[in-house]
Amino acid sequence: MPLGSEDDKGATGAAKFVTSTLGNTVGGLGKTVGGIVGAGGRGIGQTVTAATGSAGKPVGEAIESLGNGVENGAHNVSKGVEDAGKWK
């Protein structure tokens, strides 16, 4: 983050730089973990559905939905962390 404006000099500029870096790092990690959990949930759900047929389809779909929910939730929280790091 460039330290070009009057508001971004001294301690305020340093704080903004640190929080921006930290927010982007934590936000990126959160999105990565959410994506991994979401993909894993979808994979397990599809495997359950394929292995059990129509009898296990509701369980497989529930697992997929859970994985998608975790992924979306992690993405939203991570976006908030990144925005906070940008002082939004």
Main attributes of the structure:
82% helix; 88 residues; mainly alpha; rod-shaped
Description:
This protein is an all-alpha fold and 88 residues long. The chain has helices spanning 10-52, 57-85. Helix 1 runs antiparallel to helix 2. The longest helix is centred in the middle third of the chain and has 43 residues, at 10-52. It is rod-shaped, with a radius of gyration of 20 Å. The two termini are 14 Å apart.
Structural class category: mainly alpha
Order of helices and strands: HH
Q: Output the radius of gyration.
A: 20 Å
Task: Summarize model confidence as the mean pLDDT.
Answer: 88
Q: Per DSSP, what share of the residues sits in E-state strands of 2 or more residues?
A: under 5%
Approximate shape: rod-shaped
Low-confidence stretches: none
Profile the largest sheet. Answer: none
What is the count of β-strands?
0
* Helix content class: over 70%
Number of helices: 2
Span of the ends, CA to CA: 14 Å
